[in-house]
Amino acid sequence: MRLGKFWLSLIVAVLVNPAFASEELLEELASIATPPGITLQPLGKAQGYALDKDAAARLVRERIAYTDISGMTLYFNDFDSDKVIFCVDECAIKWPPAAAPTYAKPFGDWSVVDRPNGSKQWAFKGKPLYTYSEDIGVGAIAGHSAYLLARGPNAGPRGAYRGERPKEQPLPDGWHAALLYPASDVILPPGISIKDISDALGIVLVGASGQTLYVFGGDINKEEEVCGDPRCDWRPLAAPQLAASIGNFDFIIREDGIRQWTYKGLPLYSYGKDYAPGDAFGIGVHSDWHAAYTVRYYKPSNVLVGHNPMLGKVMSTTKGQTLYKRDGYIFASGGGHGLRHGAPNRPAVGRDIGINARCVVECEKWNPFLAPADANPRGNWDVTEREDGSKQWVYRGFALWTYSGDLEPGSVNAHDSYDIVLSSHPSTVVDIGTPYDGVGALYWSAVFP
């Protein structure tokens, strides 16, 4: 399927790239979520296991955990501190310490602590971190995930679980999963919440109707000049008359009489061209405007986020080559391809496909998006080693590729191109990343944030 091309706006690309944005202001708002070697994974069903009769479009990243370099969930307990560690001997066998590599350095809320045996261990907000020996794979929590169990002997041909699905077990007393989202220690005023906004590459403040909120880092007296139009698309976030300061939130009285919320001293706005919850089209419009981050996600320096009029935010290389992933599609369950960003990301399927794209046509035009030799997993980004020893970038479980048939910067000629996979017999299981006993497909998709 050929969708033609779009031109990346160089202005947008430059502004979205943190190297050109107001890095000092962004750092004041929020630091990057993870240091090198610490990754992020959605828990449970959001991994894409065991959809049963649910459409892939229903996957939601309700819980996002801090994970180790292999994607295993990290935990902390009520007893340890960065000064005294009690989990040793048998405890450390059941709860292996999250070993910090030799290159590890303190980063934001992250620190490296010395264990009694002299080894190094990651700690977050002063709490030493551990994995759990009973976790059975990426996305597990508390020893297992009801969805991960569908990979075992009770799995049906589509990864559905045969029989009553077991419930997730509670963690032992005093132990907690180290969650990035939802956050439990953020103080918010009424009408403001936080949300994982993929288009913004971070956890961002949102208004009562779910609209992304932004901060203005310029001179508020010159706001109209920045808007450039009396019908300004930036709308002050009004605070109620009885609003009071709380946490990082305060308010100002504008010259037009509006009582406006501020976050960390910066006025808060919504953007009129964000048409739906999750939109973040205000990023890159002007260097004085930024999403109101509470946490930012890591992004490699050679990756940009541009805007496609048909697809929305799309990732590309710094040369404007669109990045693609190879995904699997199950026709009977639906996949959400009619949604603005296509089917929700299913990291488990991406890991199953790996770097074997099972290409059928124009295979010579697909090129792995290579990572530097010293690249390390971080945040939503992982690296995989190829047969020739080179490293390939992996984003949210999916290996990344470029397409040499995209002849101009910003082209998306290969987006939604399908290879249909038919089973020869009703009992035959085909491999499209997820085992399936019907009509499925492997397809190329542009990579969305």
Task: Please give the structural blueprint.
Elements: H1 10-16, H2 23-29, E1 39-42, E2 64-67, E3 75-77, H3 90-94, E4 110-114, E5 120-124, E6 127-128, E7 175-177, E8 179-181, E9 193-197, E10 202-206, E11 213-216, H4 223-227, E12 234-236, E13 249-253, E14 259-263, E15 266-271, E16 289-291, E17 293-296, E18 303-308, E19 312-317, E20 324-330, H5 347-353, E21 366-368, E22 370-371, E23 381-385, E24 391-395, E25 398-403, E26 417-421, E27 430-431, E28 435-436, E29 440-446
Antiparallel strand pairs: 1-2, 2-8, 3-7, 4-5, 5-6, 9-10, 10-17, 11-15, 11-16, 12-15, 13-14, 14-15, 18-19, 20-25, 20-29, 21-25, 22-24, 23-24, 24-25, 26-29, 27-28
Task: Walk me through what this model shows.
This protein has 449 residues and is mainly β. Among the domains are: 184-296, no CATH class; 303-446, no CATH class. The protein is 7% helix and 28% strand. The chain is built from five helices and 29 strands. It has helices at residues 10-16, 23-29, 90-94, 223-227, 347-353, and strands at residues 39-42, 64-67, 75-77, 110-114, 120-124, 127-128, 175-177, 179-181, 193-197, 202-206, 213-216, 234-236, 249-253, 259-263, 266-271, 289-291, 293-296, 303-308, 312-317, 324-330, 366-368, 370-371, 381-385, 391-395, 398-403, 417-421, 430-431, 435-436, 440-446. The strands form eight sheets. Strands 20, 21, 22, 23, 24, 25, 26 and 29 form an eight-stranded antiparallel sheet that branches. Strands 11, 12, 13, 14, 15 and 16 form a six-stranded antiparallel sheet that branches. A three-stranded antiparallel sheet has the order 1-2-8, with no helix packed on it. Strand 4 and strand 5 (120-124) form a beta hairpin. Residues 1-21 have low confidence and may be disordered.
